[in-house]
Write a structure and sequence with these properties.
The protein is mainly beta. It has one helix at 20-25; strands spanning 11-18, 26-28, 35-37, 51-57, 62-67. The longest helix is centred in the first third of the chain and has 6 residues, at 20-25.
Amino acid sequence: TDPDEGMNGHVKYSMKEVSDLASEIFHLGLETGAITLVRSLDFEEGDLYELEVQAQDEGTLYDTAKVT
């Protein structure tokens, strides 16, 4: 969340670094930051997935987090 008012309080989310496989499996809500599955996980395809998610307000402030 961003405590600023107006446009600087509006946060948008994006995936900065994601593997091709993970991009086929996970969906990131651009407005909510919610990460959901597009399809079921398959242990034979991979047992670990890493996504780098960035949150940025309408100004210049942003931060990133690694989701494993």
